[in-house]
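INPUT
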Amino acid sequence: MAEETKSPAPTPPEEQKQPAAEQSAAAAQAAGTTPVAPSPPGAAEKPAAAPPKPAAPAKPAGPLPTAWDSPMVAKLKRQFGSGMEALTYLGQNYLEVDRSLIPNILQMLRDEEQFDYCVDITAVHYPKRDRQFDIIWILYCFARNERMRVKTQIADGEHIPSAVSIWPTANWLEREAYDMFGLQFDGHPDLKRILLPDGWKGHPLRKDYGIIQQDQEWVQINLGIESGQ
Amino acid sequence: MSDPISSVSHLDLDESKKTFLDADELILNMGPQHPATHGVLRVILRLDGEKVLGLECVIGYLHRGVEKIAEHRTYTMFNPYVDRMDYVAAVSNGLGYCEAVEKLLNVEAPPRANYIRVILAELNRMASHQLWLGTHALDIGAMTPLFYTFRDREEILKIFEKYCGARLTTHAFRIGGCQYETYEGFEKDVKKFIAFVAPKIDEYEELLTTNRIWVERTKKVGVISAQDCIAFGVTGPVLRASGVQWDIRKAQPYAAYARFDFEVPTGQNGDTYDRYLVRMAEMRQSLRIIQQAVDSIPEGPIMAKVSKVLKPPVGEIYHSIEAPKGELGYFIVSDGSTQPYRVRVRPPSFVNLQALDLMCRGQLIADVIAVIGTLDIVLGEVDR
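OUTPUT
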């Protein structure tokens, strides 16, 4: 396998060429001032703790999200004002919007900006954050061959309007998000578990749900065995 | 919605008001263990006689918590798990995952690796379509195609086995490229396979395309319009058979697809017959791509320089590829550690299956079988 190791190093992306000090300063700034930057759980609460790690300067962090500008973003900003931020990361555009703008912004993206295909709806759990959940809508526009994401944050127990009336495909995707994270989608026609059995307790993709955890009671009653492990 | 089963548990045929034949509505369970559901899928049918009024899919029987497992494995360790989702197109699963992580790491696989990836992914698309054709035809009552397609699919699996040692869950690619250089005689084998299988596709078509029973069973069955496809997020051959010429290999090319000349076949009617024709045409296009790829495969390294311990920078990425069944996407969140913070798989089968209700309404029970077959779902991927 000597051949593999001989391969020339790919030219480092431009962002990685900048001096490490500048890089970590930028990282600190991003972590400290913009809580919307994708950051590890806990980084938003204690921005001072993350950058001074000894390993950080030696291994430069990756590229940082940059602002995303387009006529559509300008239009959305005019309409919705300050509750949103448009960013680009690794060439992928996304909007970070305030929870209150959902579902109006989704409706507008479909009706006026032709994002007629909702690729996916999913969530990420950050237990250390105040607003624990990121909800992500991945959208696609056939007319312009354009992909984007919409992201919002909600607290545990907070409800979010369903997108089923905007894209029917949201039905199962929201059911899965409910099943896995316990998120409540208001206005969903039939919000119930989809992959796990109906009587199951707990939502496995939450970070506090252990990987070998199971609904012991359900297993004993329904499968007639002591444990599924 | 309450469980519809409980509403019929008391069904008494002697009751004067509810005789069997005059019953307005009958609830019938199909599956979870039914040979025509291609795995463990339970479909609750609401019937008026033979006519389907509506149906509900009950899924999750094969749920293994792949997304949860990902959070407890390193990026490299999780790689083989993705093969177990759509196990008849394991190469595509691996390709999507490896490319998504590469994007997150900001590395690119070397050209030779990309060519190998394209060749194997297209061979796998052929294998997946052949398996689909054999089982779909079997469901509808044509037994012969199954033997033909399995005979020919075997040749693809032999190439896989010689390349990486595995036939089904291949784990053929690594993050950053491919682990294995092609074996001695790989190109010869692939070229031999193309010459072997091209006339076989004509053979399948000879059996079915103008076969009167096949045409009657598939034309105008399970019709779905382009608008409905888009609204329900249906992708892949099903979308194309409804007339939308959209293929991620063309729309947002990945690997080496931008270098090859191929067409994206479409249908007009969005029925089961058109979907059959689209997939047959796709097999031929796959052969075209493979031919071009083996003819022009460049020399060079097969692995980009990636560190042994992968630590992608903090960030999120969504990357999708055109799997044999439709858009297969990976949404990966990195927190800068060696393990992904979250991996979301956007499975084409799961999303496509949602349209089953719409496609079956007003059709006969026998057509439900045809429509499940034509959607080409793999339950391992639906349930993950």
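end of record. Confidence is low (pLDDT under 50) at residues 1-20 of chain B.
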